[in-house]
Design a protein that fits this description.
By secondary structure, the protein is mainly α. It has helices at residues 3-14, 16-29, 34-48, 56-60, 67-76, 81-88, 121-125, 138-144, 149-161, and strands at 89-91, 97-99. 54% of the residues lie in helices and 4% in strands. Helix 3 (34-48) crosses helix 9 (149-161) and helix 5 (67-76) crosses helix 6 (81-88).
Length: 164
């Protein structure tokens, strides 16, 4: 991983409780322009962060796979969904399908996803800071500050723009 990204994540770990408190206050305050500000900060963050120099999400955080994800991935790999499931997935404590192990079995040594066009929806939507209804995603945003350097930059930007 890019050393600068490691520094960003280490700083986020140090500020973990501060970030959690800030996001909790933000949720209670419910700023009406939160989606717009967060989406702008998301775009700015990804001007600085290159996922291919990081891939920490693919190394450490397994996505929840829905049946449509399984079907799409199985088709991409020319496997029956049952074979794909047997080969790559397990059922977790919440009774959801997740990868048997991490890093993701489709992450290449070059940090490219070998099934990018067929990737699970959870991967498509990560890190969730580019979506609507951010207020409902602040808990996951907090968790993602420990995984994704871009999310750290988004949260730091929110702290600057929205004094709560």
């Amino acid at each position: 991983m890019n050393p600068e990204y490691l520094k960003i994540l280490e700083n986020a770990r140090k500020k973990s409780s501060e970030n959690k408190k800030f996001l909790e206050k933000l949720k209670a305050k419910k700023p009406k322009d939160l989606d717009i500000i967060t989406n702008e900060l998301h775009d700015e963050a990804f001007e600085q962060i290159n996922c291919l120099e990081c891939a920490n999400c693919c190394r450490t955080t397994g996505p929840l796979l829905l049946n449509k994800d399984i079907d799409r991935l199985a088709s991409e790999l020319k496997l029956k969904p049952s074979i794909f499931t047997e080969r790559y997935l397990r059922v977790d404590e919440d009774n959801d399908y997740v990868f048997k192990s991490m890093p993701c079995p489709f992450l290449g040594s070059d940090n490219y996803c070998h099934v990018y066009e067929a990737r699970p929806n959870a991967c498509r939507e990560f890190p969730h800071t580019q979506q609507r209804n951010i207020l409902q995603k602040l808990k996951i945003t907090y968790h993602n500050t420990l995984i994704c350097p871009a999310v750290v930059l988004v949260v730091e930007g929110l702290k600057e723009k929205l004094k709560v």
